[in-house]
Amino acid sequence: MAYDTSVTPDAVADLSAREMRRSVMSRWGLRAGVVIGWLAFIGVWYVFSGAVLGTQQLPPPHTVAAEAWQVVTGDGFGATLWASLLRVIVGCTLALSASIVLGMVIAYSAWWRGLLGVLTRFFVSIPTVALAILALILFGVSGLGPMLTAALVATPYVMSSVAQGLTGVDRRLIVMSESFGRTRSQIITGVLLPSSVLAVIGGARQAFALAWRITLLTEVFASSDGVGFQIRRSFESYDVRGLLAWTALFIGLMFIFENFVFRQLERRAFGGAHVSQATAESTQ
Amino acid sequence: MSYAADLPTAPEFSQASGTPQSAPAQAVHWTRKPWFINALAVAILLVVWQYLYSVNERVPSIDEVVSFLGVELGGGSHGGVSRGEFWGPLSISLQRYVIGLAIGVPVGGLLGLLIGGSRRFRSVLNDTVLVLLVLPSVVWAFAASLWFGIGSTAPVVAVVLTAVPFMAVNLSSGIRGLDPGLALMSDAFRVPRLRRATHLLVGGALSNAVTGVRLAFMTSWNSLLIVEWFGTASGVGWRAKHWYDAQRFEGFVAWILLFVVFITLLDWLVLRRLEHRSTRWQQQPTLTFAEGEVT
Predict the structure, then answer these.
(1) What are A234-283's pLDDT values in tens digits?
(2) Rounded to an integer, what distance in angstroms lies between the CA atom of residue A262 and that of residue A253?
(3) In this structure, are B178 and B45 located in the same domain?
(4) Which of A174, A180, A256, B244 has the most C-beta neighbours closer than 10 Å?
(5) Do both B114 and B203 map to the same domain?
(6) In this complex, do B119 and A26 lie within 8 Å of one another by their Cβ atoms?
(7) Are the C-beta atoms of residues B96 and B152 closer than 8 Å to each other?
(8) How far apart are CA B143 and CA B194, in angstroms?
(9) Domain count of the fold of chain B
């Protein structure tokens, strides 16, 4: 290993003098930087709340934290969260299953790619606020609107990332499998599926993030429960504290899902498909 | 930390990969011509609309919306004293949009430069920018209208706050994606700082910056509409809400169509061209050392 001859340009760059000097200091310096960043964020918040907007208009962080704690421990929090979460999960699942089918169609047929491309461009250019209100017109105040809007908005993005995952499969791998006499089903299970699993997980992650935001927005307009409804209620009663507390909880939830659900899923999938991932990266 | 991946970039379909394209010499069958596909897509949308109209009495019909559009654009009478208004609300909204972007894009670009260029700034500012990015625009809209009332300040602030994180994240990822080998080479050839900034930094990160501008334009249009819907008494968002509150859904749908037309025109006439120009220089080197492939 000491005489590894495969020195790539990247390795040279990594070993450059600047990197060496940095690596000693950087780790602790950067961690301190993150702490400084958060302290600065909270400090700026305090300054704005105390000196610029006033505590009535922008409550200081500790008030918002207390309010958030009260929301979490108060009754009805579980029901509110569950109402939104259920919509997000159903919307996400709908979007993901539609995208897998449509993604395959797009990846292997130029005609469908053209048609769906035109339709997608139309849907993407509708402002999401307009979609949320359209859902209100179509479904009235019900749980169905947020769910379907989330699915409709997330599908184009997820569809294209699934399609890219499928078309990004290294063709040389398929040629090689053919020349070693693998059957069609073996190629599908051994080459195509492992590389599309990563694309599907990436798509699911994207769908989840999008579905959360759209569900929230649609709940603001067309729902009588859920996180979005609570945000709207706070707004209508001029309750900035409640508005910020619910927002902070929402952001916290997104980070928790991102770090504890999708990163784990991805890590697990990388274990099974690291070979095809490596080739996909080198061909890009 | 990978919220950059959640950015709603417009879906693109790679035309190059996938099924092999037919040779240009062969005549393309008429069902594959772009005009046919476009017409088919429009027809599908119209059929879906007609179907929704027939099953749901709250959905306006196509001709209702078209005739409403005619009155609204032409300034005729909607019945009674209410007259069509189009240019007034549009010019107010465009003013807010342009002012907000003129502040938000440079500020976001500066932040992106700092975060992308220096690891110290990145460790300090990165989380804040991500929180701004994750924050739903409806919250900005609500907060801004509570703080600033129903004037023009709230929409402008919301546009700025939406544009900044998109610009910052895109530009910084572009700068961090620059080839470190090029920086080493510039060191070795003693390229002066200014030339390095213009050729390496601007040349390499320009396409990301333009993508950031494009996303900032698209998303801040959305939050402008939300603020105008909830917290102002003028502008296009307010006009759409006006017709919604009056239970004239044909007016509301007509305005949605106008929003779509506006953003599509902006995208086609300005943003796509910018993007195309900014990536035009990116040609493959004629001689590569990768696996002996000389293309």
Answers:
(1) 888 888 888 889 888 888 888 888 778 777 777 776 654 444 433 333 33
(2) 13
(3) no
(4) B244
(5) yes
(6) yes
(7) yes
(8) 42
(9) 2
Question: What single DSSP character describes residue A192?
Answer: I
Token pair in block for residue B254: 């007509």
Size of interface A-B (CB pairs under 8 A): 177
Nearest to A110 by CA among B81, B239, B18, B2: B18
CB B229 within 8 A of CB B150: no
Closest CA of chain A from B49, distance in Å: 12
For residues B144 and B270, membership in a common domain is answered with yes
The DSSP annotation for chain B comes to: -GGGGGS-PPP---SSSSSPPPPTTSPPPGGGSHHHHHHHHHHHHHHHHHHHHHH-TTSPPHHHHHHHHHHHHHT-BSSTT-B---HHHHHHHHHHHHHHHHHHHHHHHHHHHHHHH-HHHHHHHHHHHHHHHHS-HHHHHHHHHHHHTTSSHHHHHHHHHHHHHHHHHHHHHHHHTS-HHHHHHHHHTT--HHHHIIIIIIHHHHHHHHHHHHHHHHHHHHHHHHHHHHH-SSSHHHHHHHHHHTT-HHHHHHHHHHHHHHHHHHIIIIIHHHHHHHHTT-PPPSS--GGG---
* Residue of A18, A22, A26, A129 to mutate for B, most B C-beta atoms under 10 A: A129
Does B117 reside within a domain?
Answer: yes
B 136-155 near A (Cβ less than 8 A)? 136, 138-139, 142-143, 146-147
In a shared domain, residues B125 and B44: no
Rounded to whole angstroms, how far apart are CA atoms B228 and A130?
12
In this prediction, the residues of chain B whose per-residue pLDDT falls under 70 are 1-27, 79-81, 279-295
Distances (CA, A) of B88 to A204, A246, B72, B92, B238: 43, 36, 11, 6, 12
B55/B94 same-domain check: no
Residues B126 and B181 placed together within one structural domain of the fold: yes
- Domain membership of residue B155 (yes or no) is yes
Out of B8, B40, B60, a domain closes at: B60
Cβ <8 Å between A58 and B18: no
Parent domain of B46:
31-60
pLDDT at position B101 is 93
The verdict on a CB contact (< 8 Å) between B38 and A118 is yes
Residue B263 CA to chain centroid, in angstroms? Answer: 8
Structural contact between residues B72 and B253, judged by C-beta atoms closer than 8 angstroms: no
CA distance B174 to chain A (A): 16
The 10 Å CB-count burial string (b at 16+, else e) for A157-187 is bbbbbbbbbbbbbbeebeeebeeeebeeeeb
User: Do B272 and B140 have their domain in common?
Assistant: yes
Model's pTM, two decimal places? 0.75
d(CA A106, CA A121): 15
In angstroms, the CA B280 to CA A102 distance is: 31
Residue B68 counted as domain residue: no
Residues A117-146: pLDDT tens digits? Answer: 888 888 877 888 888 888 888 887 777 888
> Domain check: are B36 and B128 in the same one?
no
